[in-house]
Amino acid sequence: MRRFLALSLAVAVILSSCGNSKKEVAAVELTPIMEKALNDETSKFYANFAEFPQQKNKLPIGVFDSGTGGLTVLEVLLNADMIDNISGKPGADGVPDFAGEDFTYLADRANMPYGNYAAENKQDFFRELVVKDALFLLGNKYWKNPADKERSGQMQPCKILVIACNTATAWGLADVSTLLEQSGTGVKVIGVINAGVNALYNKIEKSGSTDSLAVGVLATVGTIASGAYERTINEIGEANGYKGFIKVVNHPCAGFAESVDQEKDFVNVALSAPREGYRGPKMGTGSEDIKEELLRAYNFDYGNGALLVEKAGNKYVQFQLNSAANYARFHLVTLLEKHKASGAKVPLKYIILGCTHYPFLLNTLTQAVDELRNLRDADGKLVYGGLIAPDFEFIDPAVFTALECYETLRADKNLALNTTEGRLEGYISVPAYGLPYECVDEDGNLTYEFKYGREHATEDITTVFVPFSKRYLDEQTLGRIQSMLPASYSKIEKIIE
Predict the structure, then answer these.
(1) What is 76-130 written as a DSSP string?
(2) Residues 6 or more apart from 312 whose CB is under 8 A from it?
(3) Torsion angle, alpha carbons of 216, 330, 76, 67, to 10
(4) Of the candidates 136, 198, 110, which has an alpha carbon nearest to the alpha carbon of residue 450?
(5) Confidence category of residue 28, pLDDT binned at 50, 70, 90
(6) For residue 113, cis peptide bond before it (omega within 30 degrees of 0)
(7) CB neighbours of 434 closer than 8 A, spacing ≥ 6?
(8) CB–CB of 428/465 below 8 Å?
(9) To the nearest whole percent, how much of the chain has pLDDT over 70?
(10) How many C-beta neighbours within 10 Å does residue 437 have?
(11) 211: pLDDT confidence band, cut at 50, 70 and 90?
(12) Hey, is 405 helix, strand or coil?
C-alpha cells in the first residue's frame, strides 16, 4: 500500500504544494476564473489570498461534490481509524483519525449533473464551476439566502480541499492545484481518482496474483469522456511493473448519480407512466440502451413506479428507469455486456465506483453481481460464465482519499489535534434570485437549456451557496443519509433547519 500511496502523494505534492506567501514560480496558463481570483481586484471572484490565515491547523477540512454523493466520502473521513494518532504509523488506535476536526461540506446541486457538461461541449464552463466551488471553500463568506445581493454570512476558510467528485477531479483537479500553487496559501487539494486507482493496486498487490484481469469503471458520462481513470490506471500500473496486466472496461452511467439525488429529469416518484422530458437511458439497440432481451439480467424492480413501461399489444415500446436501484442494475449489466462483447477471456475482478453517489447503491450492486454470476440461459448455460471472478470486489475510492487527506495534513503539521467533537457546516447551491423566469423550471431549478447554455469567463452569478436546510434537502434524501451515513447525518441534523 505504501508504494502506491507514496506515488499518489508525490503527485499531489508536486501539483499543489506551496508556502505561506506567494513564490516565484514558472509561468503557467491561467484560465479566466483563476486570473480573476488571483489578480483582478475589480472582479466578483477576486479572492485576496494575501489575507488567508497563516495558522491553518484549526481551520476546517473542505469537501465538495455536485450533490449529496460526496457525503459518502465525508462519512469515511468521520469514521476513519487507519492511523495511530500519536505515532502517525498505520494501524487503528481506537481514536478516529480526524477526531476534533471541523468540516465544511459543499453540495453544488444547482449545477448538477456535472457529467453532462462535456456531452454539451461546455468543458470550459464546467472547469470554471469546479474552481468556483474551491474559491467558495477558500473564502470566509456565504449567502444567507438566495435573495441576498451580497454574501453576508461569516464562515472559516478551509485548510485543505477534498474534491469528493470523480467528474470534478477529472476535469478540474489540475486547475484547482494551479490556483492553490499560485495563491501562496499553503492549502492543498486531494482528488478521488488517484485514490481509487491506488486502492485498486493495493488490492492487487495484497492478493499476490500475477494473472491478467479486467477492471470495470462505473462513472459519469463526463468522467468517462475525460479518460482520467483509464489513463491513471495505465500510468500508475506502468510505473510499477503492471504494463499490459489490466484490461479496463469503461462505462458511462447516464442518470445514475442524478437518480440518487432525485433529479426529476431522471427520476420522478410521482409518476406511474412514461413522460416527456425524461433524460435517462431509453429502449434501443445501441450499447448504452435498455434491451428487452436483457430483462432477466437487469432483474428490474417493477413496483411503485420504479420502472415506467409502455406497451403496444404484447410488445414493449418504451422503458424509463425511475429508481436509483434500477439505474444501478441497468448500468452494471451494461458494463458486463461490454466486457462480454469484447471477447475478453480474463474475468472481471474489480469494479471501481467512479462516482461518490454510487456507494449509496452498493447493496443493490452487490446483490446484482451475485444474481448475474448464477444467471443461466434457456439451455442451462451460465450467461456470464468465466466473466466474473470468484473473488470479485467493488472498490470505493473514499478510503484512500481519507488516508491521503490525513497524511497530507500530518506532513504539513495542519491537523487540529483537538479532543472535542468537531463541527460541520453544510452549504448547497441554489439558483440566484432574480433570474429570468424562463431560466428556472416549475420546481425552482435551473432549466436544462439554461444550465448547459451558460458561457464561461463572465461575471454572471447564476447560482449561490446557502446553508443546508430542509427546503433544499427533501425528506427522501435526508432519510437515505440517515440510514446509510449515520455519522454524517448526526452532524447534519444539528445544523439543518
Answers:
(1) HHHH---B-TTT--BS--SS-TTTT--EEEEE-GGG--TTHHHHTT-HHHHHHHH
(2) none
(3) 120
(4) 110
(5) low
(6) yes
(7) none
(8) yes
(9) 94
(10) 6
(11) confident
(12) helix
Radius of gyration of the chain (CA): 23
User: Residues 6 or more apart from 289 whose CB is under 8 A from it?
Assistant: 281, 282, 283
The answer to whether the CB of 301 falls within 8 A of the CB of 326 is yes
Task: Tell me if residue 106 falls in helix, strand or coil.
Answer: strand
d(CA 453, CA 75): 34
Residues 291, 297: Cα–Cα separation, whole Å: 10
**Phi/psi of residue 17, nearest 5 degrees:** -70, 145
Beta strand pairing call for 213-219 and 246-252? parallel
Helix (H) or strand (E) holding 373: helix 362-373
pLDDT at 376: 96
Q: What is the DSSP secondary-structure string of 125-190?
A: HHHHHHHHHHHHHHSSEE-SSTT-SS--EE-PPPSEEEE--HHHHHHHHHHHHHHHHHHTS--EEE
Q: How far apart are CA 209 and CA 19, in angstroms?
A: 42
Instruction: Round to whole Å and give the CA distance between 376 and 367.
Output: 16
Residue whose C-alpha cell reads 477576486 in the numeric block: 46
Q: How many helices (H) and strands (E) does the chain have?
A: 17, 14
Residues 6+ apart with CB under 8 A from 486: none
Q: What is the mean pLDDT of the chain?
A: 92
What is the largest distance, in Å, between two alpha-carbon atoms of the chain? 73
Contact status, residue 215 vs residue 233, Cβ threshold 8 Å: yes
Instruction: Give SS3 for 311.
Output: strand
Classify burial at 328, counting beta carbons within 10 Å of its beta carbon; exposed 0-12, middle 13-18, buried 19 or more: buried
pTM, entire model? 0.87
Cβ atoms of 251 and 217 closer than 8 Å: yes
Measured torsion, CA atoms of residues 221, 251, 300, 65, in degrees rounded to the nearest 10: -40
Element (H, E) at 308: strand 307-312
Judged on CB neighbours under 10 Å (0-12, 13-18, 19+), 189 is buried
Residue 23 has pLDDT above 90, yes or no: no
